[in-house]
Structures are given as C-alpha cells and as structure tokens.
Amino acid sequence: MTIEESLFGTCPDGTKARLFTMANKNGMSISVTDLGAALVKVLVPDKHGVTEDVVLGFDKAEDYLDNPSFFGVVIGPSANRIAGAAFEIDGKEYQLDANDGENNLHSHREEGYHKRIWEADTEGGSVTFTLKDNASMGFPGKKEVMVRYSLTEENELRIHYHGISDSKTILNMTNHTYFNLDGHGSGSMESHELWLGASQYTPVVQGAIPTGEIVSVAGTPMDFTKPKKVGKDICEAFEQLELTGGYDHNWVIDGWDGSLRHFATVKAPGSGRTMKAFTTLPGVQFYAGNFIAEQKGKDGANYGPRMGLCLETQYFPDSAHHHNFPSAVFGEGKEYHSETVYRFEV
C-alpha cells in the first residue's frame, strides 16, 4: 500500500510534524500524524458512494498542541483516571500529576504521549510510530512503546500497540478518536445506534473514579446489549449519568480472554455507515462527547457537545487500586500488547 507523506505543521521548538496518508481500493483512506501518534482523518463512502471524513480533528498540527478534548490522539502511558494521582507497585508509591481535581487523567496534559513527536516508519505498508520514555510524569521504568496503524482492503483500520519497560510500571494506552459516521461536521451523533457486547460496567463516584464494583447493565440506561440510539436514555434521571453528564464509563467486554473480540457496532441511519469494533482488551470507555468544547475543527466545522463518540479500548480505569480488575502493570519481561480494529461497512 502506498503511503503519502506531507508537512502537517511546526511545533514551537521548530520541529516539523508530518502527516501520513494511506488509501485502499474501496475509496477509504486514513491519515495519521507523528504528533501524538494521532488519527487525523478517516474517509469512508456512505450508502450513496459519497465519501466523508468521520472523525473529529484539526487541519494542522499546531491545533493538536492545545486539543482539550484529546481528538484522535494516543494516550499514554496510562489512559483514563487514577484516583488520588498516585499508585503503588510492590509497596512503593508513585506520585502523578493531579490534573483532574485530586485525580490523574490521561497521564499528563502537557507531557503525555499525545503531545510528543513520535518516530515514524512507513515500511511494510503501515505507519509505525515509536517513542522512548525514561520514567517521565511519575511513572517508573525506562520504556519503549509502539503504535502501528494499518488499513486493509476490507475497510479495517487496525491499531496495534506494544510496550516494554525495564521495571514494573503501568502501561494502558488507548486511542481517543471521536467518531461521527454521518461526517465529522454533521452535528450531534445522538441518533447513532450503538450495540455493546458488554453486559456489565464499572460504576463510578464523583470524579468518575470507579467504585471497584462490576455490575450488570440490565434494567438501566447503561444497557446496550440490544442496539439503541445513543440519545435514547442519555438524559435519564439515573445517578451514574448525572455524575458524568451522560455516558462516560468503562464497560466490561463479555468473554474477555485476550483474543480479538467484536465488542461494539455503531450505525448511522442517515448515511448508512456502520462501524464494527474489535479488541483484545478487557474494557472500553464509551464516551458520548458530553463536554466537547465549542471550537473550530477541520474544514471550518463547528464542534460542540455530543458531536462525536469515543470507544476507547483499555484496561479498566484506576485498576491500580482495585485488585479485582485486570492488572495494567507491565515490565521486567512482561510486555504490553494489544490490538483494536475498526471495520467500516455500509
């Protein structure tokens, strides 16, 4: 597969950011940048053959240096929240940046992997980004991490992650892309239909920190085991939704065993586009974009709340404090691997 490279912008220190674009024979293309290893564009035909970009983002790298909603970027070394901005491994405490009240969110807002320039390699028909990290942001370990983006002729966007560390640390990376299958500038995605292969979720307290419980979705607005519109129950008087302003929770993927599993299907009735999502990970943070700030996006589009949804595959948030959650501690020979696939259909 041919990969086109172009200049995407310039960082304040003068470093040039690059954009890499690959296309398949079906009219689908994706573009990624070495700034934050971000997914910038996903162009997919609709039921009438009209191609539109279905992910929220910006036209140039400089805007990704602000990006308060984390459009498209890879989060690392640890996605989501850690209570008290601290954790212990083998009895030693590590202090993190308290950047979400008293908690830690997405590692660090300025120093996290989403604000760094990654090394890029385009051999083999994919774009592979690598990054070295020497115990930054309070996370222990000299680490080397990799994210590979591939596009198949089956209209699959495949994201493969790998990480090693010379000491035990938390590695829990994710991609924070917001999808709107009617087009990134088309407005609210609350009419999208969502199915989740997840009959349980992890409820939270104030601050969106999990309680440690794993509870059934049955009989609650959190139940997507049968497809329903995202907006159907999002404003229900349900404590979990009130705590987070809508859907912003971790769902527990049914039957998790480390193999690649189909965990979600999103359908946009207007355009006819469907996205099926697969992962090797145990959880997915479904975020309905409740707090997307009013801002200008690509092509002059106006973005705002609930104009895109995220399916952030992950180990459960705050797993360091809940021993009943799958562990996200890696290193000292235990390597981090995961894969997430988004397949587009009409």
Describe the 3D structure.
The protein contains 2 helices and 31 strands. It has a single domain (3-345), classed as Beta-galactosidase, Chain A, domain 5 (Distorted Sandwich), CATH 2.70.98.10. β13 (142-151) and β14 form a beta hairpin. The chain has 346 residues and is mainly beta.
How would you describe this structure in keywords?
346 residues, mainly beta, Beta-galactosidase, Chain A, domain 5, 5-stranded antiparallel β-sheet, 40% strand, globular
How is this structure best summarized?
Helices cover 3% and strands 40% of the residues.
Counting DSSP E segments of at least 2 residues, the number of strands comes to 31
How many separate structural domains?
A: 1
What would the CATH topology be? Beta-galactosidase, Chain A, domain 5
CATH class wording: Mainly Beta
Q: Kindly name the structural category.
A: mainly beta
Please tell me the overall pLDDT. Answer: 97
Low-confidence stretches: none
Helices and strands, with pairings:
Elements: E1 3-10, E2 16-23, E3 29-33, E4 39-45, E5 51-53, H1 61-64, E6 74-75, E7 81-82, E8 86-89, E9 92-95, E10 104-105, E11 119-121, E12 127-134, E13 142-151, E14 156-165, E15 169-170, E16 174-175, E17 193-196, E18 200-202, E19 204-205, E20 209-210, E21 215-216, E22 228-229, H2 239-244, E23 248-252, E24 261-267, E25 274-279, E26 283-287, E27 295-296, E28 302-303, E29 310-314, E30 329-330, E31 336-345
Antiparallel strand pairs: 1-2, 2-3, 3-4, 4-5, 6-16, 7-10, 8-9, 11-12, 12-13, 13-14, 14-31, 15-30, 17-22, 17-24, 18-21, 18-23, 19-20, 23-26, 24-25, 25-31, 26-29, 27-28
